[in-house]
Here is the input.
Amino acid sequence: DIQMTQSPSSLSASVGDSVTITCQASQDISNYLNWYQQKPGKAPKLLIYDASNLETGVPSRFSGSGSGTEFTFAISSLQPEDIATYYCQQYDNLPRTFGQGTRLEIE
Amino acid sequence: EVHLVESGGGLVKPGGSLRLSCAASGFTFGSQTVTWVRQAPGTGLEWVSSITASSSYIYYSDSAKGRFTTSRDNARNLLFLQMNSLRAEDTAVYFCARGGGYFDFWGQGTPVTVSS
Here is the structure.
């Protein structure tokens, strides 16, 4: 199975800050990497697909980059509604695997 | 508008069975791969199973293989997850989601608790 390692596991930042989350795959997954946002008690929401493509309707302050084994997810100008847990997920291979999540809090 | 609504969750004893359903609307269900993902309490997301549009291919996680069966009824826009021989570690919220690579729409989830 492809292991997905996210860092950090938690993050605290202020409104207006820029934040970055990284995701490392245990093997080359090309750009088959997605990012989700999950708020407490809610279903995950797709934000970024294929490493860098913004899902329709997602604010442009969210972005993704990377390929191969190293990926980055960024939020520019953090907003209060961005409080959530963020997950990366690979689909280069079965089983589909998720990172362990990054919990984002507002200071 | 795409909607996915899961049902069928509940409390079941270890070794018991449960059948989850996911009702889809707002898209051509019969043309899409759909997937089950679960989330144990306080933990992350775990892919469980995916089924292609015409049920030609059905894939399972190692934890689901041999105990869970995924099926679909394209005429009724329904996805199913038959879960047998349930264990405490199957306790989770079960989500259905559209897609097999990336999951662009999700249901609200149905909770399954396996406990005596």
About this structure: Chain A has a mean pLDDT of 97. Residues 11 and 20 of chain A are 9 Å apart (CA to CA). The radius of gyration of chain A is 13 Å. Chain A touches chain B at residues 32, 34, 36, 38, 42-46, 49-50, 55, 87, 89, 91, 94-101 (CB under 8 Å).
